[in-house]
Amino acid sequence: MAQATAPPRPRFDDGAADTRPASRRRSQAPAAHVFLAPWLIGMIALTVGPMLASLYLSFTDYGLFTGPKWVGLANYRYMLEDDQFLASIGVTLKFVLIGAPLKLAAALAVALLLNRDRRGAGLYRAAFYAPSLLGASVSVALVWRSLFATDGFTDKTLGSLGIHLGGFTDNPDYALYPLITLTVWQFGAPMVIFLAGLKQIPKELYEAASLDGASRLRTFVSVTLPMLTPVLFFNLVLEIIHSFQSFTSAFVISSGTGGPSDSTLLYSLYLYKQAFSNFHMGYASAMAWVLLVIIAAVTALVFRTSRMWVHYGQEEAS
Fold first, then answer.
1. Cα separations (Å) of 208 from 13, 96, 172, 212, 301?
2. How confident is the model at residue 22 (pLDDT cuts 50, 70, 90)?
3. Rounded CA gap, 246 and 241, in Å?
4. 256: left (phi > 0), else alpha (psi -120 to 50), else beta?
5. How far apart are CA 122 and CA 119, in angstroms?
6. Which of 71, 76, 198, 235 has its CA 20 to 30 Å from the CA of residue 118?
């Protein structure tokens, strides 16, 4: 009796195997290089090249109209003695720590309201998203400056209620808050991302919570928020990076001066002043690399702490 042979083991490939002849694949390689060439040229000429140039200039004394002179780490050492540089870091950290959480909170709150199926929901979503389409434009910043200036709409409204602050933009104690209010007002982009995340939460979880008698607050804390943490993490990283790079609103509202007592002197604004007002391009380049390091460090910290509060569906299932 012939011995039965085992059937061949099936192969499980992640994708379909490329059955084209090797000669044909090689013949298509030049075409791929041609299509990739514009992107490669743009990346080298517009990103990698300027970054390497700024890295070199950060170690030089370069006045824009004079040739760069090598000074080593002098620009970086001077930062520790520059009072305005240290003040800009403090203002920027305050702006990020207050503005980013408030913006995400507003975006999540509106997303929860718009997640319900109701008449005219699309119109409301478009209306709330509209400010984000304007971006950090000069026109919006000008309107914002007029609203919070001395004798502006906000000042007159508060004055009629017996609250006299003398305007926000001219008061060093309150000058930063119009900038924070402006960035919170433009919460449309994270709101759309939150809406997409809310749509992905299984309805069975809400049904189970309802059967257990959970209140709306308990359902939000135990179901919605944990399932939404990956989206919250994504929005948080984007908003932190965006907040550190904010420039236009601070420049326009403070008329490029940094506000009274440098109260609105964001890091990017001070970098601009050093580069294009004082023509200290070497020092500005060093500031740009320090900003890159700060953003990378804060982002790495957020990634590190995400292990403790970000929950993914696959991890929950395992």
1. 38, 38, 52, 6, 35
2. low
3. 9
4. left
5. 8
6. 235
pTM of the predicted structure, to 2 decimals: 0.84
Q: CA-CA distance, 272 to 267, in Å (whole number)?
A: 9
3-state secondary structure of 4: coil
Asked whether the predicted pLDDT for residue 317 surpasses 50, the reply is: no
Q: Is 70 helix (H, G, I), strand (E, B) or coil?
A: strand
Nearest CA to 224 out of 187, 199, 192, 188 is that of: 199
Mean pLDDT across 64-85: 93
Structure tokens at 105: 């909170």
Long-range contacts of 48-56 (CB under 8 A, 24+ apart): 54/285, 54/288, 54/289, 55/285, 55/289
- Is 181 in contact with 97 (CB distance < 8 Å)? no
pLDDT the model gives residue 316: 46
Contact 173, 167 (CB under 8 A): no
Phi, psi of 148 (to 5 degrees): -105, 5
pLDDT in tens, 190-224: 999 999 999 999 999 999 999 888 899 999 999 99
* Domains of the chain, CATH where assigned: 75-310 (1.10.3720.10)
Can you list the alpha helix ranges (DSSP code H) found in the chain?
Answer: 22-43, 49-57, 74-79, 83-114, 121-134, 138-148, 153-160, 176-185, 188-199, 203-211, 216-219, 225-244, 248-253, 267-272, 281-309, 313-317
Q: What is the 3-state secondary structure (H, E, C) of 99-134?
A: HHHHHHHHHHHHHHHHCCCCCCHHHHHHHHHHHHHH
